[in-house]
Structure formats: structure tokens, C-alpha cells
């Protein structure tokens, strides 16, 4: 990318006051983190457990469970509730009765989502970006989940926002617009940072600025989605350090 083009791209960020970040996959490596926890907590309860495959199956229930909320088929509930229901769905799919596993074990397994490890560039990049911008998660995580991840990992958020603050799951427009409003900002004063093209498309349609950050191994070494930007995003960055180089 030539220098003049990059300057043109970043000039639009002069009016941006806040960067809001997708969390799962963009800030934290959910897949290997969940696999490591599952290996510890479920190894005595799930025959032939393959932790990475279990993590993938658990994550595969994520969007369908939220879609029922977005469609109005059920009232809004925290992601912790959905994760626990999805955990039991995955166990049943493997032929394991969730009732055969002690409830405290399932509870602790579900809390794995509160103990996700950040990508190596996340803390240093966020720290640099925080010098110029408000930085906060715009995630489908509930507040306590996002708070626990941040405290454990040392993520330097200026605010901890969760889906229940907006009362909506992305890509519902309320998730983006209510977050901007909570920060006292107009959509054009906010930039969505994500490794997922669909998230950026929803944000852009509502007037937010957009920054695509590559996470080519979020789904493992054979990942096939979100390897490249597929929209006309304002910024494309290799990682958070590169993002900071471009706009800080």
C-alpha cells in the first residue's frame, strides 16, 4: 500500500473519538483458550474428547442461539446463559447426558469463556491506541464475562460494555447505535474494529467507521473465512500494532 493512499485512508479518523472492538477472535484467541479449559474440565466425562473439535462445536452454536433472541423467539438473556445451554447441546451431540456430569464441573467449564487469552499484539496495541482514542469492547459478551477477561489478561479498556448494556446482539443495529449513544458519541465518531467482515458491514451500514484486523488462525490453521477484507473498510491492518501505526 503506498504512503499517500494510507494517509488518505487514515485522514477520516481525525473525527473518530472511540474505537470499539469485537472481542471473540479479534482481541482474544477463543479457540485455543477454550480447548485448553475443556481438556482439563471434561477429560473424565467425555469419551474420546478432542478439545479443539469440542471448542469448534461449542462456538458453532453461538450464532444460532443468538439468532433466536434477534428474531424475537425468546427474550434477551446474557451470553453466559446461552453458552451454558450450548454446552449442554454439544454434550448431547456427542452422546453425553449433561446430567451425568456434576453441575459444578459444567459451571466451571462454562466459565472458560471468562478466561480467554489475548492475541500477542492485543495489550500492547490497545495501550498505544488508548493514548488517542477511547477504547472499549463492542462484543456480544455480557459485562461480567468481558470484565473477567479484561482483568485476567490486563486489557486496558476505558469502559467495559456488554451486550446487555445495549440489550441486543450484533449485528442488530441497536448493538452498535446504543453503544455509540452510551459513549455520548454520534456513529461517525466511532470506529468498529473487527476481524470479521460481517461485523464491519453491519457497523458501516449504520455510519460507523471500520477497521479490519487480520486474524487468520482464529479458527485454526485451516481457516477459510475472513482471511481478507471483503468490503470497502476504512482501515486494513495486520494486527493491533499495525493499526496503531496507522491511526495513532
TrEMBL record:
Entry keyword Hydrolase: yes
Q: InterPro entries under this entry?
A: 2-HAD, HAD-like_sf, HAD-SF_hydro_IA, HAD_sf, S-2-haloacid_dehalogenase
Instruction: Note the Gene3D superfamilies from the entry.
Output: 1.10.150.750, HAD superfamily/HAD-like
Pfam families assigned: Hydrolase
- Quote the CDD domains the UniProt record gives: HAD_L2-DEX (cd02588)
Going by the entry's taxonomy, the superkingdom of the source organism is recorded as Bacteria
Kindly indicate whether the keyword Cytoplasm belongs to this entry. Answer: no
Any idea which UniProt keywords this protein has?
Hydrolase
Q: Please give the PANTHER family that the UniProt record associates with this protein.
A: HALOACID DEHALOGENASE, TYPE II (AFU_ORTHOLOGUE AFUA_2G07750)-RELATED, HYDROLASE, HALOACID DELAHOGENASE-RELATED
Matching entries from NCBIfam families are given as: HAD-SF-IA-v2 (TIGR01493), HAD_type_II (TIGR01428)
Protein name, UniProt field: Haloacid dehalogenase type II
Give the organism the record lists.
Answer: Brevibacterium permense
